[in-house]
Write a structure and sequence with these properties.
The protein is an alpha/beta fold. Among the domains are: about 150 residues, Immunoglobulins (Immunoglobulin-like, Sandwich); about 100 residues, Golgi alpha-mannosidase II (Immunoglobulin-like, Sandwich). The protein contains 17 helices and 30 strands. The chain has an eight-stranded parallel beta barrel with strand order 10-11-14-17-18-19-20-21, surrounded by four helices. Strands 22-23-24-30-26-27 form a six-stranded antiparallel β-sheet. Strands 3, 6, 7, 8 and 9 form a five-stranded antiparallel β-sheet that branches. β15 and β16 form a beta hairpin. α6 packs parallel to α7, α9 packs parallel to α11 and α16 runs parallel beside α17. It starts with a helix and ends with a strand.
């Protein structure tokens, strides 16, 4: 052991000035040698300040050269450890043969191991001050062992050849607030599966297989983006990826980091954006993870009233520590810059912002002013969003924030949090409460569908019908609908139409586009066999038509954040439960009139007021045969007449079917 330590120290001394050696080689006309990787004083300074945004290129396990030898450089932050040893396949998991050297003042441990190779498994044996041993996965590992194993795996991210430069250049120039954005939320492990075999019980698609199947489906349906759940490594399938142990490692369930790069690259080449779920709110207690990393609370708040979520049984990141904030900010940048991801949907933002979130009196600590706001977390979000969006033009930071916290999408300089967009949870709750009602009672709850317009421009919103709404006995979307079999499909088509017309970007969870009957489970694939049945195929046809209409007509998305982009024709027709409104395009050349009937009552010769004496072209009719309607022929063109209706001078009449939806272009 002493000989190894002595050799290592000598190697460190010999490699102290790589930059000078490189300059010397260049002067002599030779090729500059590969720079040796190590943690320098400046690295420690930046990490200690919370501003080392590329720290993941130094901490973790990385291929490098030292004294002419190629090997792996390991570095881990364990400030309160008594000692740290490296164990792995390269030393047969010997607990004593590779001690790591401590670098102060931050307490980073490092070692260079020539015997270590790409693909080998390893862990850190962290010795606590109390004498306990902690066998820890690498917080900065780029790959992990397939569960139930939990060792880290040495990976090389530099070999993949990207082919999405056209997409990346286009992304830099675009403003998603002015673009169509319809997101297909996907859990890769249960979207589709291979038949279970003895050698492959899970039946998971590899990232590369998923790339082709998913791209084909998303393009066919007309979505613009996919949002992927559970990509960062996590130990338990049932957490859906929301209890992360490997923040820098794409989960091994579906392949290697290079395989995941292939997925993103392929989707980009097919003009599909990629958003990842990202979980800075909490992490699990698993012994190999971040919890009590060196025997003390390193990544989490030490006070359990701040450092633990009573409801979830998880640990909360310490947003008062610069190194912890750096770990998370660098991680967000890692996914966006190393894996070309287009955006992060930040999970459970409210649980981070409020000190009393999910806690009873006596279970939480007020801030210095006696309030319930986590001041450190507020500063963290401003810092995070400023850096990520400042360095990556066109990227998105999306908040899942379930309260009325002000200025979530406001600029940090205006005391906003700096997110690009926010999930509209209020709209979702009101919409679902309305849709679940028997149509007879909807007239008494008409305002549930109109209320969201009173705050629609307070933030930049995404309308969401996510995985959370189709689990835990909440029923699938189709089974939330009232009535008998046919009524359920008609209701859902009307609901989706209202969603597409309403201001805000769109998100729909997988399976709900064709009427999945069962609640979603991560353990099985979607019920694709349902598409052999007429009603499910017709619903899918209708959602496809809605998504393509949404993408085709700028009126559906250009004015999402501008009150001029939306106009009620009649917001008060509660007795008949009919909503009519206009979406205006910026140039006024392709405006759309939506009429949606939420009762099973047919309205022959329904008259709707209109803004102008123009021709109105029917571009979407839910009663068409391909959508499961009667197939009754309707005129394509309607001329507005001078006849007062809905407080307008002009109007026209249209046969509005039961649960009928009509969209007109003018």
């Amino acid at each position: 052991m002493n000989k190894r330590t002595s050799k290592k120290k000598t190697a460190v001394k010999k490699a102290e000035a790589p930059a000078a050696k490189a300059a010397e080689a260049k002067t002599a006309g030779g090729k500059a040698p590969e720079e040796e990787l190590r943690i320098g004083e400046f690295d420690q300074y930046l990490f200690g300040q919370g501003t080392h945004y590329d720290i993941y290129k130094k901490l973790g396990a990385h291929k490098t050269k030292r004294n002419g030898k190629t090997g792996i450089y390991f570095a881990v932050w364990a400030p309160n450890a008594k000692a740290v040893n490296l164990i792995g396949e390269f030393n047969e998991w010997d607990e004593e043969s590779i001690p790591m050297e401590r670098l102060d003042p931050l307490g980073i441990y490092e070692v260079f191991v020539p015997e270590a190779k790409i693909g080998m498994l390893y862990k850190y044996l962290v010795h606590g001050q109390d004498g306990r041993k902690h066998y820890k996965a690498d917080p900065f590992a780029n790959a992990s062992e397939m569960r139930p194993g939990n060792a880290s795996k040495i990976a090389d991210l530099t070999k993949f050849k990207w082919g999405d430069s056209a997409w990346m250049k286009r992304r830099e120039k675009q403003d998603m607030n002015e673009m169509p954005m319809s997101i297909y939320e996907v859990h890769p492990g249960s979207w589709k599966k291979h038949p279970s075999k003895e050698e492959d019980v899970d039946g998971f698609f590899n990232y590369r297989e998923l790339a082709h199947s998913l791209a084909d489906y998303v393009k066919d349906m007309g979505y613009t983006h996919v949002e992927l759940m559970g990509i960062a490594e996590h130990p338990f399938d049932g957490s859906w990826g929301y209890q992360v142990t490997g923040y820098y490692a794409p989960t091994a369930r579906y392949g290697s980091p290079a395989d995941f790069m292939y997925l993103v690259n392929y989707l980009h080449k097919n003009k599909i954006g990629v958003i990842l779920d990202w979980v800075p709110a909490h992490f699990p207690r698993d012994a190999h993870g971040l919890a009590e990393f060196d025997g003390t609370c390193v990544y989490e708040y030490a006070d359990p009233r701040k450092g633990e979520h009573p409801d979830w049984g998880t640990k909360v990141f310490d947003f008062g520590k610069n190194e912890v904030k750096n770990f998370l900010i660098a991680n967000a940048l890692y996914w966006i810059e190393q894996f070309h991801v287009d955006g992060l949907r930040v999970d459970a933002v409210a649980s981070i912002l409020y000190l009393d979130y999910g806690r009873q009196n006596g279970q939480w600590v007020p801030n210095i002013y006696g309030g319930n706001k986590n001041l450190e977390a507020i500063e963290f979000f401003k810092h995070l969003n400023s850096v990520v969006l400042g360095r990556n033009k066109g990227a998105l930071m999306i908040a899942e924030e379930s309260t009325a916290w002000p200025l979530v999408t406001g600029k940090p300089e205006d005391d906003g949090l700096g997110f690009s967009m926010k999930w509209n949870m209020g709209w979702m709750h009101d919409f679902l409460e309305y849709m679940k009602l028997d149509p007879y009672f909807r007239k008494y709850n008409h305002n549930k569908m109109t209320f969201a317009m009173t705050y629609a421009y307070s933030e930049k919103y995404i309308l969401v019908l996510s995985h959370d709404e189709v689990v835990h006995l909440k029923c699938s979307m189709i089974n939330k609908m009232p009535g008998l079999y046919d009524d359920k499909f008609a209701n859902l088509k009307a609901g989706y139409s209202f969603m597409i017309g309403h201001p805000g970007k769109k998100l729909l969870f997988m399976g709900q586009e064709f009427g999945q009957f069962q609640e979603w489970s991560e353990a099985r694939e979607l019920d694709w066999y349902l598409l052999s049945e007429e009603k499910h195929q017709e619903l899918q046809n209708y959602v496809r038509a809605l998504l393509n209409l949404y993408k085709k007509y700028p009126a559906c998305y250009q004015g999402d954040n501008d009150p001029k982009g939306f106009e009620w024709i009649n917001a008060d027709d509660g007795d008949r439960s009919i909503f009519s409104f206009v979406r205006h395009s910026t140039d006024g050349k392709s405006d759309l009139l939506f009429v949606v009937n939420f009762t099973p009552v047919e309205r022959p010769d329904y008259r709707v007021g209109v803004p102008k004496k123009k021709q109105y072209r029917l571009i979407l009719n839910s009663d068409a045969e391909e959508f499961g309607g009667s197939g009754k022929e309707q005129p394509e063109i309607y001329k507005a007449q001078m006849q007062e209706c809905d407080g307008r001078k002009y109007s026209f009449a249209y046969d509005l079917p039961a649960y009928g939806v009509a969209v007109f272009k003018f």
